[in-house]
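Morning!

This is the sequence you dropped in the shared folder:
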Amino acid sequence: MAPTDAGAGGRNRLARESSPYLRQHADNPVDWYPWGEEAFARARAEQKPVLLSVGYSTCHWCHVMAHESFENAAIAERMNEWFVSVKVDREERPDVDAAYMLATQALSGQGGWPMTVFLTPEREPFYAGTYYPPEDRHGRPGFPRLLESVHRAWEERRGDVLRAAGSITERLEAAVRYERPGELELDAAAAERAVARLRSDYDPRWGGFGGAPKFPSPSTLEFLLAHDALGDRGADAPSATAMVLETLRRMAAGGIYDPLGGGFARYSVDERWLVPHFEKMLYDNAQLARLYLHAHQVTGDALFARIAGETLEAIEDELALPGGGYAAALDADSEGIEGKYYLWSAADVAEVVGRDSGEERLVRLAYGVSEGGNFTDPHHPELTGRNVLTRERTVEELAAELGEPAAAVEERLGSARRRLLDARLRRIPPHRDEKLLASWNGLVLAALAEAARVLDEPRYLARAERLAALLWEEMRDGDRLLHVRREVGGESRHVSGMLEDYAFVGLGLLELYRARGDLGDLARAELLGAQIIELFHDAEGGGFFDTAADAERLILRQKTIADQATPSGNAAAAQLLAWIARYRVQPRYEQLASAAVALAQASMIDHAAGFGAAWLARALLAAPRREAVLVGDAAARAPLARELAKRFFPAMVIAPADQGGGLPLLEGRDVVSGAAAYLCEEMVCDLPATTSGEFARQLDRLSASPGGPGAGEGVG
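The structure's back. Tokens below.
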């Protein structure tokens, strides 16, 4: 049966949608609807259940299920006859995804994408799962058999189904109904217990936490760095920083990092970081770039600065959109095969750099290339024996093995890398999801702005300034932030901003203020903080809802308190409000931030890996008040700013400005000529420093004080 609302050439109604993921299904024989009242009105009119399918455009198993089932005419005929089928892009509608993911986890005991949920016409779920094969396989029912079973239940036992759906919805509503939390009680000892819990899961051989598959978990690693830097570590406790640094080195050496194009894949399928799941996500790379910047500040190690810079260049080279901003992701698949774009045989390498040449030996040593390869794929035997490129040897180790000067080896390797990358660029590239999401671009804004400050790179500041202007001028509707906006056939489509959009963009603007000293950036971050309180705050239960008070009503209005691939909305909002409280002396903002963290405190010790962002917010709230005020025009204060940027102070209020005024801590701090730095701790200030050397000595004294970076460890 063909779609009943086919477009030109037999395409279904998804051809008119803005989401790249939805448009990937525009040629399916399924009569898909996008999420909206039209689909549910038809379901009510025809008394059919709704089949909700949720995924995203770079999801490998979403592609598999689409090919096996949604492109199958016989399966599509059953879907069209028995159900109203709705397709949702989880990245465009994270609110819809979150509501039904909770249902899927409750009903099936697991979650993931593609997500398959059966709903009543009133949007209540009654059966849910994830990927289903086209026939019974590996303990999973085949999708056609599932469709028939659900259809039969709906036709023969509809009353039971409706009662079950109502009961399920009631249980879900109870699960997301938080009682108003008490006071935030997590102290330094509690933080140390959380670190001990993470240490028990730490992999001392390969870094990271747990076994395969292994995820980078940037929020968790950021918390561990801050834990030591802020003095929460007990006197006899092992270093949390050491776990972070070893993990970052192992990741940079493994195949999860792309040594040719830069940037990180989503996760490693093994515990060694060797073979990645090859999709590249904007949010991973933005967060990891900042994490490597912080590791560079802690250690001074150039490796961490290099990886941060290469990751930011990968974001620019691979994800920059023609109209500004950055695309959501690169697919794992190329030519329908996961990883094909990134894999190399020994013969491929020889063809590019020359067989039996010195360059071939260098490349094979540097990137771990062997004749037998390190990659196997039972579904695509032609790829078995190819290599995922790694960088396990340093330039110095390569130089020693080759008996050449390190500088010469580095130059030759750079030339070989460029040739290999040029050759790879001639391959058929992975699909790019060109959605511009405000929240994820907010993460990029923070990374670019901090990189501009820490690495003293003007090009990063220019990119950050352009991105901030786009987010503020094009990703708002009136004075309200948008989650996504796209032009489709001359028509603007958008989804209203959610908590994560306001929080991530606000934090990005805060970093931009620290980098360039424009108080307008801080004012815009403050406006977003005020809107978070106005639109998302739960006055009864504390914390913040994911969606605004006037957003579309779903079956659930949730508060996300645990991190997923990105920081939880509540934790990010708490961080933003805590920062604003420090800049503006706003006790109410600090109280609201504390209450948002308190929502999660029952889980934050035993399940620390899921609450890194909340622990960071708690650390900021508990940290001693430290301020670095840099006054003078940008050129004059640049040497002082560079000195400050060498050090990792995760809770320091950094306030640059041309002249005093505009902030309480700037009042009375004008300079007649040149620049001055005022360093203060708990309202006690050093004399103003006017030279970088003088400022460096003040910062070193602060670093050596209890709670300073590297206190008791000598890593500062």
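Headline: Residues 453 and 515 are 5 Å apart (CA to CA).

More detail when I'm at my desk.
O.
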